[in-house]
């Protein structure tokens, strides 16, 4: 089945019901499906078809929502970006994915120009908002084909529908290939494990970018006919979020621990009725136990944790509401839950042997939610997909009852505010500064963001660059969430006998010098 059929079927069954709300505007399922069909027709008329890659650079909006379903129905591949990326970073994604068309929000003209430079044979560029001389206006493309019939392209289960870009230890983003068959399983699994009982009577509040995890969370809402409610502001507003929960009787939402904590601790939580909430799903980082208890006291037993990666589209573990407890004696503190329905987890040693209960090793997973591999990256595929298992690169242990505990990362990745940050990216940029001879970046505890980055720099002889200069040097070269919070200057970096720089030695030295600020323990 073409994944786009989920929208077509829901629109046929629930046509007049409200499907999407954004600010003062709303769309029924029939209206939304009609606009998607028109966009499909407009893209077809301009030469796009099955297998073509559609790059989309836009903030949450009805157009971003529509572009996803249009790509699916067309049999094309949706390539959404993180709007916090710089123009060169987005241009790399366009070139790497093989994008032949682009939809972009008119507030990002530099990104569109960078894509055009990187992909000179781009067939079409469609602007959401004001269109430039070389662009088509999104609403014009939709208007010209309103009334077009709904026709989904014929696809096989293994055909790609979404390139989910995730950074890697090499410093360059990798395109995880998500397929129609895989995502159909994910939709069913989310409904079974994360938000059971969801129907057309429900509403889902979207507080994270649809381009990533929130987009995967949106798919089961469409499948069940639950309306999605977008925040109207470009910046996160706790007051608006709680007002929308009350107004639309929101039953579920997907977020990250830092945002959920902000919501629960904001005074507006007590001014609005949130009794409709049944499944408040958080993922992307551990949650501090103190925050977990506070949220349980404030919202009740409605929070759901899962552990997953883009490559497995969230489908590794779940810790449902019934397993969240105020009492430390009842709570499995530090666990991210048990294996998702239809998925299998193994802890393996470096030789690939499966380890027993409570032994630490690499977290590996297999099952229908595992992606089809990285686009055009055989080296990464060989490393991640071995012996029928996806190797996550994370370290952990399974207890005797099958509950997973993440104990570290095989790579140096850290998670800041729910976003994966890979030190190599920042290191490569900082090393281009003439004052930097050596640099090591690592994540340290941060009470606000979970983790944040620090850089330890060895200057070139005679150089005098200071912290402010190096941080400003990142501007325009790296998305801000990947910037470091602090820069420390040392005479030399500790090295192993092989000349490598072990990050754990740097972390120990930072701690010895008292340069790592203490944060709450997860």
Mean pLDDT: 93
Q: Report helical residue fraction.
A: 25-40%
What's the gyration radius in Å? 23 Å
How much of the sequence lies in strands comes to 25-35%
Output the number of helix runs: 15
Judged by helices, strands and strand pairing, the structural class is alpha/beta
Q: What does the largest sheet look like?
A: 14 strands, mixed
Task: State the end-to-end distance.
Answer: 42 Å
General shape = globular
Q: Which regions are unreliable across 5 or more consecutive residues at pLDDT < 50?
A: 518-522
Question: What can you tell me about this protein's structure?
Answer:
This protein is α/β, with parallel strands linked by helices and 522 residues long. The strands form five sheets. Strands 1, 2, 10, 11, 12, 13, 14, 15, 16, 17, 18, 19, 20 and 21 form a 14-stranded mixed beta sheet that branches. The protein is globular, with a radius of gyration of 23 Å. It starts with a helix and ends in a 9-residue tail after the last helix.
């Amino acid at each position: 089945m073409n994944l786009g059929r989920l929208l077509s079927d829901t629109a046929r069954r629930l046509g007049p019901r409200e499907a999407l709300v954004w600010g003062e505007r709303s769309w029924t399922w029939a209206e939304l499906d009609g606009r998607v069909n028109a966009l499909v027709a407009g893209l077809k008329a301009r030469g796009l078809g099955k297998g073509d890659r559609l790059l989309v650079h836009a903030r949450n909006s009805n157009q971003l929502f529509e572009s996803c379903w249009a790509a699916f129905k067309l049999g094309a591949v949706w390539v959404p970006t993180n709007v916090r990326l710089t123009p060169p970073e987005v241009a790399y994604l366009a070139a790497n994915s093989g994008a032949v068309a682009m939809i972009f929000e008119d507030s990002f003209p530099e990104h569109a120009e960078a894509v055009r430079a990187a992909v000179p044979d781009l067939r079409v560029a469609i602007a959401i908002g004001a269109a430039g001389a070389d662009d088509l206006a999104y609403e014009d493309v939709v208007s010209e084909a309103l009334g077009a019939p709904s026709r989904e392209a014929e696809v096989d289960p293994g055909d790609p529908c979404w390139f989910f870009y995730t950074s890697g230890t090499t410093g360059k983003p990798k395109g995880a290939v998500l397929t129609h068959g895989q995502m159909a399983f994910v939709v069913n699994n989310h409904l079974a494990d994360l938000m059971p009982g969801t129907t057309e009577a429900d509403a889902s509040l979207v507080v994270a970018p649809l381009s990533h995890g929130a987009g995967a969370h949106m798919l089961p809402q469409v499948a069940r006919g639950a309306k999605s409610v977008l925040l109207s502001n470009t910046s996160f507003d706790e007051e608006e979020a709680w007002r929308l929960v009350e107004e639309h009787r929101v039953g579920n939402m997907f977020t990250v621990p830092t945002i959920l904590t902000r919501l629960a601790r904001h005074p507006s939580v007590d001014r609005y009725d949130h009794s409709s909430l049944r499944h408040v799903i958080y993922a992307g980082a551990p949650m501090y136990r103190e925050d977990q208890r506070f949220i349980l006291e404030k919202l009740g037993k409605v929070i759901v944790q899962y552990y997953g990666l883009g490559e497995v589209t969230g489908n590794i573990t779940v810790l449902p509401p019934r397993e969240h407890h105020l009492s430390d004696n009842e709570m499995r503190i530090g666990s991210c839950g048990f294996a998702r329905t239809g998925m299998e987890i193994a802890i393996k040693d470096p030789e690939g042997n499966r380890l027993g209960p409570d032994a630490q090793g690499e977290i590996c997973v297999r099952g229908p939610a595992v992606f089809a591999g990285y686009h055009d990256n055989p080296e990464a595929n060989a490393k991640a997909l071995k012996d029928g298992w996806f190797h996550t690169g994370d370290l952990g242990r399974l207890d005797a009852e099958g509950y997973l505990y993440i104990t570290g990362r095989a790579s140096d990745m850290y998670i800041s505010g729910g976003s994966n940050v890979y030190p190599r990216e920042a290191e490569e940029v900082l090393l281009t500064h003439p004052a930097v001879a050596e640099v090591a970046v690592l994540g340290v505890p941060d009470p606000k963001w979970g983790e944040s980055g620090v850089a330890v720099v060895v200057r070139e002889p005679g150089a005098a660059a200071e912290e402010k200069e190096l941080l400003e040097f990142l501007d325009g070269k790296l998305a801000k969430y990947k910037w470091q919070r602090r820069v420390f200057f040392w005479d030399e970096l500790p090295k192993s006998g092989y000349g490598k720089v072990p990050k754990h030695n740097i972390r120990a030295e930072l701690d010895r010098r008292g340069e790592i600020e203490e944060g709450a323990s997860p």
